[in-house]
Design a protein that fits this description.
Radius of gyration: 46 Å
Largest sheet: 2 strands, antiparallel
Structural class: mainly alpha
Shape: elongated
Number of strands: 6
Number of domains: 2
Order of helices and strands: EEHEEHHEEH
Strand order of the largest sheet: 1-2
Low-confidence stretches: none
């Protein structure tokens, strides 16, 4: 199917099992070298580790590109100055300060819900050390519930 011997890669006129006069006619065999499809060819010699033209200028350009890429990778993950204890970016630092001040205003308010029920109901209404009422409305409601409980037992006693 081809005009050459696939084992030896010679033309069939030179390398065939028949006598030279009985060999098939074929065109002159030319070794086909495939065209290089790689368009991203660099003029760089790997052996000598140098560019073929304008070596010094290209080395400087490569170093600048590598430094820019390294800085870009660094700033993606590093945005806090550990020595000074603040963000490198002033806008990010101002946003953090504002958020921290807002959280400081409501800090500890939800801690009351973590206290036991008896402390929440009784202990936070007044301060027994200085005898000061902390939550007058809740204290009044508690006293009213105790008074109504007593009245309820009196009604029960009267009914019986």
């Amino acid at each position: 199917m081809v005009d050459y011997n696939i084992v030896s890669n010679y033309s069939l006129q030179d390398h065939h099992y028949d006598a030279p006069e009985k060999r098939p006619d074929c065109k002159e065999f030319v070794v086909k070298i495939p065209e290089n499809k790689n368009k991203n060819f660099k003029d760089y010699n790997v052996i000598s580790n140098k560019y073929l033209e304008h070596h010094d200028a290209k080395i400087i350009a490569d170093e600048k590109i590598q430094k820019a890429e390294a800085a870009d990778r660094y700033w993606k993950t590093h945005n806090f100055d550990l020595v000074n204890g603040e963000y490198f970016d002033a806008a990010k630092e101002a946003e953090f300060q504002q958020k921290r001040n807002d959280e400081a205003k409501i800090h500890g308010q939800d801690e009351v819900n973590k206290l036991p029920l008896t402390v929440r109901n009784d202990g936070l209404m007044y301060n027994p050390v200085n005898m000061k009422i902390e939550d007058e409305k809740r204290l009044y409601e508690r006293d009213l519930r105790e008074k109504n409980k007593k009245a309820r037992f009196e009604v029960r006693y009267d009914v019986e």
